[in-house]
Amino acid sequence: MLRRRNLFQERYDAFIKELRNEILSGSLLPGEFILPENTLSEKYQISRVSVRKVLAQLVEEGLIEKIAGKGNRVKLPEEEIPRQTLKLIWFSGSYETDIIRKIIDRYEKVHPYVRVELIILPSEDYVRHLTQMMEEGGGPDLFFVSDYHMREFLAYDKLDHLLPYDPEGIDAERDSYPVVFDMFREQGRLMAVPVHFSPVVICYNKEVLAEAGIQQVSASTIRSWDDLLAIAKQCTEEAVEHGMMERYGFCFSSSSNRWPAFIMQNGGRFMDDNGKSAFDDKRNAEALQFCVDLMYKHHVSPIYSHGSSFLAESLFRRGRMAMIMSTYYFMNEFRGMNLNWDLLPLPGQANKGTILLGGALGINKHGEKTKVAQSLIEFMIGPEAQTILKRNGCTIPVRREIAENDRLLDPSIHPQYYNAFTHVMPYAQSLQGLGLSQSQLDLLNEELHVLWANMETPESACERVSAMMDQLSPNARI
Questions:
Q1: CA nearest 305: which of 429, 461, 438, 123?
Q2: Are the CB atoms for 475 and 154 separated by under 8 Å?
Q3: pLDDT in tens, 108-154
C-alpha cells in the first residue's frame, strides 16, 4: 500500500509541475485552453478527481481560469499578475550584465507569469560557490558558465549538477559556429547552451600608428610575426628623459587566454594523440622564445611575468600601447572613450590559430523550474535577445545571422572591422579543445613564471613542464 501511495504522489506531482511549467514557460499561451480533464487523466494516469484538484490549485494561483461550458484556459494577463520567480546567477565583472538586464526585461514582458531574479556572485571561486548553493538546495534555476567555468566543473567533478539541454531554437552547424558549442559538450552532450563568444584578436590604436608613420594596416600588411614585430618596433617610443618608455608597440601578456595562441600559430601542440604531454615540442620552444624576445630582446613590450591581461588593456586605453592582444569582451571597455581603434586578426606564422572564449547558460539539474529555465535559454539565443546583445556591446552573439549583420553595427560602440572574427573562426580553438584540463593550465601558468622572468630558456622550460604535465591526470582536481 505504501508503494501505491508513493506512485500516486509521483504522478500527481509530475502533473502539476509540468502543467505549471508549460504555462510559465509560454508553451501554453494566455487565452489558450488546456486539454480536457479526461485526456489529462489518461495522460498522467491519475483520477479525474485528482485532475480537478490540480486545476483548482492553478486557478487559486491565478494561472488558469474555468470557463463555463468550455473548460480551463490560461488566464489572460491583468495588471496584477502572480509571478513565479526564476533565479539566474551571473558573475561579477561580466561586461554583459547591463545588457542581460535589458534582455530579462523583454523576456518578462513576453512571459508575464515569470519574474527573473538576477543574482551576481563574485568572480573569485565562482564555481565553488555556485555548486555549494546547489548542493545545499538553495541554488539557482540556471546560471552563466564560461569555458573557464566549464573546465572547473570538470576538474571539481561537479558536471552532474548541469542538466544536458540541446535547444530546438538553434542548430550549431546551420545557425552558429560548431566550435563554440564544442566548448560546452562533454561526451557528446551539450551541458550548457552558448550565448556569446570571442576569439583573441589584435586591437590597434590608429592615431598611435599614424604618429609612427603607419597610415594603414590590415590582414594583408601584418601576415607574419616578423611583420608584427616590425610595426611594433616602429611604434615603440623611448622617453626623452630618465630612461623611461613613452610608448610600447605591442603588449605581450602571460595570461593563459593569450600566450597559447603563439604556440598554435607556430604549429606547436600541448598534448599528443594518446593524451600524453607534447609540450617539449621544439615548435613550442620557438613560439615561447618569440614571446620572451618581445620583452627582453626587442623591448617592444613591457615585461609582464604575471597573467593579468587587464594591464595591457588599461595601458592601451591611455594611448601607451600601439597594439595589444585582446577579446571582444574587453572591447566593451572602450565605449564612450576618445579612442580611435580597430581590429586585426592575429598575424599567423605556420598557422592562423587563435584562442576562443565563450559564455553559455547552464540549467540546475535539481531545480524545480527546468522547463521555465529552458524557455529563458531559448529566448536568450533567439533573434530578439541576440539583437539586443549585438546593438549594445561588442560581445559577439552566438547566432550567426545576428553576429554577422553589419546593419546592427554602431560606430560609437563597434570598431570598423568588427567582422574580423569571421576570418579567424575557422582556425580558433578553445583551451579545452587543445586537450588541456584546468589543472594542466594551472600548472602551466605556475611553472612558466620562471620563463617569463627570463630566468630559464624556453627549451628547458618546455622539457621541465612537459614532464610535470605527464604526472597529472587530464581530469585531476584543482
A1: 461
A2: yes
A3: 988 888 999 999 999 999 999 999 999 998 889 999 999 999 999 99
d(CA 114, CA 212): 56
pLDDT for residue 310: 67
What percent of the chain is predicted at pLDDT more than 90?
63
Q: Which fold is adopted by the domain 199-356+412-470?
A: D-Maltodextrin-Binding Protein; domain 2 (3.40.190)
Task: Give the 3-state secondary structure of the chain.
Answer: CHHHHHHHHHHHHHHHHHHHHHHHHCCCCCCCECCCHHHHHHHHCCCHHHHHHHHHHHHHCCCEEEECCCEEEECCCCCCCCCEEEEEEEECCCCCHHHHHHHHHHHHHHCCCEEEEEEEECCCCHHHHHHHHHHCCCCCCEEEEEHHHHHHHHHCCCHHHECCCCCCCCCHHHHCCHHHHHCCEECCEECCEEEEEEEEEEEEEHHHHHHCCCCCCCCCCCCCHHHHHHHHHHHCEECCCCCCEEEECCECCCCCCCCHHHHHHCCCCCECCCCCECCCCHHHHHHHHHHHHHHHCCCCCCCCCCCCCHHHHHHHHCCCECEEEEECCHHHHHCCCCCCEEEECCCCCCCCCEEEEEEEEEEECCCCCHHHHHHHHHHHCCHHHHHHHHHCCCCEECCHHHHCCHHHCCCCCCCCCHHHHHHHHHHEECCCCCCCCHHHHHHHHHHCHHHHCCCCCHHHHHHHHHHHHHCCCCCCCC
Look up residue 364 and give its three cell numbers: 540546475
Kindly list the domain boundaries of the chain, sorted by start residue: 2-74, 84-196+358-408, 199-356+412-470
**Longest CA span, the chain:** 92
Q: Which CATH number is associated with domain 84-196+358-408?
A: 3.40.190.10
| CATH entry, 2-74, from 1.20.1250.20, 3.30.470.10, 1.10.10.60, 1.10.10.10 | 1.10.10.10
Say yes or no: do domains 2-74 and 84-196+358-408 share a fold: no
| Each residue's pLDDT tens digit, 192-203 | 999 999 999 999
> Residue 77's pLDDT band (boundaries 50, 70, 90)?
low
Q: Copy the grid coordinates of residue 467.
A: 614532464
